[in-house]
């Protein structure tokens, strides 16, 4: 029972620390009816296990999920560039300990984004970054091609890239399979958050309320930048490492 409660408390911390990095001890104490001192012992255990980073002293302490791995690459687009090979060489190894469902979902999304950039974007290069913490996997794939919304403006048709983004979001919200990017929309629904930025606009999906929105984004210039987030569960070995801390720390 004690181990189950410890797992629950520390899982709560992992899920909420990014929302309230300075007040997480108070949140834990309130949620579980324990003292601040006891909440701090759970935080200390996660710091010791390498799951959290800590800065500051006493009540000024601030916590954040530690980056467990980061991979960043830039690749020239050639006829022989293989999304499967890129995954196998650079991304797959850092997710080897994840649940098969999480790993397979990430693999499918990553391959779709790379394959689309190679086949349809008219790009000369693509770059990607994968960052992981105990809670999540964040992936970004960028290219220097014509831009997805500029291309959709011609396909739909729409008067501008911004209008194309708005129509994309409308069809995505309606779960329409008539969109040229229907597969991308379907894959986006398996994520916790998803964003496409291009031609001065960004179209984003929020799984918490199953909604799509379009916003102006001055940083979204040439090419296309697509990001997604998947929630992961820390490996059993990592969880056990936390629980094996001396009982005086719990």
Q: What features would you describe in this structure?
A:
With 250 residues, this protein is of the alpha+beta class. Helices cover 41% and strands 23% of the residues. The strands form two sheets. The chain has a seven-stranded antiparallel sheet with strand order 3-4-5-9-6-7-8, with helices on one face. A hairpin with a 2-residue loop joins strand 6 (193-198) and strand 7 (201-206). Helix 2 packs across helix 3 (36-48). The longest helix has 21 residues, at 100-120. The protein is elongated, with a radius of gyration of 21 Å.
Topology:
Layout: H1 2-16, H2 24-32, H3 36-48, E1 52-55, E2 62-65, E3 69-76, H4 83-91, H5 100-120, E4 125-132, E5 136-143, H6 148-155, H7 161-173, H8 182-188, E6 193-198, E7 201-206, E8 211-216, E9 224-231, H9 236-243
Antiparallel strand pairs: 1-2, 3-4, 4-5, 5-9, 6-7, 6-9, 7-8
Into which percentage range does the β-strand content fall? 15-25%
* Major β-sheet strand ordering: 3-4-5-9-6-7-8
Order of helices and strands: HHHEEEHHEEHHHEEEEH
Radius of gyration, whole Å: 21 Å
Instruction: Count the beta strands.
Output: 9
* Average pLDDT rating: 87
Name of the CATH class of the largest domain: Alpha Beta
Overall, the morphology is elongated
Oligomer: single chain
Number of helices: 9
Gap between N and C termini: 14 Å
Question: Quick one: CATH superfamily of the largest domain?
Answer: Histidine kinase-like ATPase, C-terminal domain
Low-confidence stretches: 235-239, 241-250
Q: In the residues, how many domains can be counted?
A: 2
